[in-house]
Design a protein that fits this description.
The complex is a heterodimer of chains A (219) and B (232). Chain A is mainly α and 219 residues long. Chain A is built from 10 helices and 2 strands, in the order H-H-H-H-H-H-H-H-E-E-H-H. Chain B starts with 5 loop residues before the first helix and ends with a helix. Classes of the chains: A mainly alpha (219), B alpha+beta (232). The A-B interface holds A 39, 71-76, 79-80, 83, 87, 90-91, 94-95, 97-99, 101-102, 105, 108-109, 195 and B 3-4, 8-9, 12-13, 16-17, 20, 23-24, 27-28, 31, 34-35, 38-39, 41-42, 57, 154, 157-158. Chain B: This is Na(+)-translocating NADH-quinone reductase subunit C.
Chain lengths: 219, 232
């Protein structure tokens, strides 16, 4: 270990959080975790809950694998990763069932499917196995947030344009589009709450992101 | 010890599995009471929904006690009350596997604000991927359906899972279980558009045929046992 300790939030460490939010976003750039991004973004509340759940799993699986990284036998490392991820997902599932039952019903299989979310295994293989615990935690926060950020943006537009409401955890459904709009002839776009529109919204986000950041455009 | 050797690998895997199992078992045990309570509240909300009483997790308990309370009992195949059983705790998943004669048939009596009595019958059957269940409420003629609500474990979203929507459930209202001759006819779930005017048919879901048919089979299977009770 070097005698000079790196500050906890050095520029290098902060980058671990910020790049997955933008230039290395797991959904819009790496196109990972698309499946759940399409499935749970009809309403804002489940999207927020799933984002928090995924973030919890990325952070703690990164931390645990990073702590264990020097002990894990190379030949069974994928199995070890899977056991850690699966256990964390079961914990999330059980806790949701105990404290947020209705949301857990809405999310149904998608909590269990966090196990197969490529972002998590991807970060374990690519980062946590070769880095110290603290950067791994930051990497987990970054990637969980990068994923959640897109999920929430997509859910925001889908629910707002599709129903005129936004459901927030603890607050229930709040009407955003005022009644006068409907009297003036505004109509909700029912297409927004159907699965194909999730794909289109993600596509629009990717388009906006690439047109703002020319580096992302492949030659 | 050699980190890549077989002994180490086996030891590592064994210890890991035992530790993980212990943690998860402990967690599941300690959260179970809360989960059971949530499930019971959700069940009460479902029961109330079948008689078109909307409730939330916060007031379901109170409304259940107000409208149903102790007016729930268990019948046998002859329509007689089975003593010593509580309707709410009967595990329908186990009951439907028994023979018709041994089955317990729970029923809830609900007194609405307008003085009407509704009978609520729980049903359970098989969908495409797993169990489906529901509650059917009858008017006090014990024949006309007042409302129905269904749930499922893991039917396909957008297809079979649509049985939980109003679009599928609303048409059950007004259907009849017995035909003009007083024979038990149940309610069949048929291809979309073919149910018009028929008192014993309801439209199914396009693309969710197996689940739709499963609902019909479930109704036939579970409601037929109440025949004697309903005819009285």
């Amino acid at each position: 270990m070097s005698s000079e300790k790196e500050p906890l939030f050095s520029a290098k460490n902060l980058k671990l959080i910020t790049t997955p939010l933008g230039a290395q976003n797991p959904i819009t750039i790496q196109v990972l975790g698309i499946c759940s991004a399409l499935a749970v973004t009809v309403k804002l509340e489940p999207a927020i809950v799933l984002s928090i759940s995924v973030m919890f799993v990325t952070v703690f699986s990164n931390l645990i694998i990073s702590l264990l990284r020097n002990t894990i036998p190379a030949r069974i490392r994928i199995i070890v990763q899977l056991v850690v991820v699966a256990s964390l997902v079961i914990i999330v599932d059980q806790v949701l069932k105990a404290f947020a039952y209705e949301v857990s019903l809405q999310l149904s299989v998608f909590v269990g499917l966090i196990i197969t979310n490529c972002i998590i295994m991807g970060r374990l293989e690519a980062f946590a196995l070769g880095n110290k615990p603290w950067p791994s935690v930051l990497d987990g926060i970054g990637n969980g947030a990068g994923y959640g950020f897109i999920l929430i943006v997509v859910a925001f537009f889908r629910e707002l344009l599709g129903t005129g409401f936004l459901t927030l955890p603890g607050l229930g459904a709040i009407q955003i589009v005022p009644d006068v709009f409907y009297q003036w002839g505004y109509a909700n776009n029912g297409f927004m709450i159907l699965p194909p529109m999730a794909l289109v919204v993600v596509g629009i986000i990717i388009w906006v992101q690439r047109s703002r950041n020319k580096d992302l455009i492949e030659s | 010890m050699d980190r890549q050797g077989n002994t180490y690998t086996f030891l590592y895997a064994s210890v890991m599995v035992i530790v993980v199992a212990a943690i998860l078992a402990f967690l599941a045990q300690s959260l179970k009471p809360m989960q059971d309570k949530n499930a019971a509240v959700a069940k009460k909300m479902d029961i109330l929904k079948s008689v078109q009483i909307e409730s939330t997790a916060a007031n379901a308990e109170e409304k259940y006690n107000k409208y149903i309370g102790e007016n729930a009992y268990v019948l046998d195949i002859n329509g007689e009350k089975k003593p010593g059983l509580e309707a709410f705790t009967v595990d329908l998943a186990k009951e439907v596997k028994k023979g018709d004669d041994e089955r317990a048939y729970p029923i809830y009596e609900c007194k609405l604000d307008n003085g009407q009595t509704k009978y609520i019958i729980p049903v359970r059957g098989k969908g495409l991927w797993g169990p489906i269940w529901g509650y059917v409420s009858l008017d006090d003629d014990k024949n006309t359906v007042f409302g129905a609500t269904f749930g499922h474990k893991g039917e396909t979203p957008g297809l079979g899972a649509e049985i939980t929507t109003d679009m599928f459930q609303k048409p059950f209202t007004g259907k009849k279980l017995f035909d003009e001759n007083g024979q038990f006819a149940s309610i069949e779930v048929v291809k979309k558009g073919q149910s018009q005017g028929d008192l014993h048919k309801v439209d199914g879901i396009s693309g969710g045929t197996i689940t739709s048919v499963g609902v019909g089979t479930m109704l036939e299977d579970c409601l037929s046992g109440y025949e004697k009770f309903l005819k009285n």
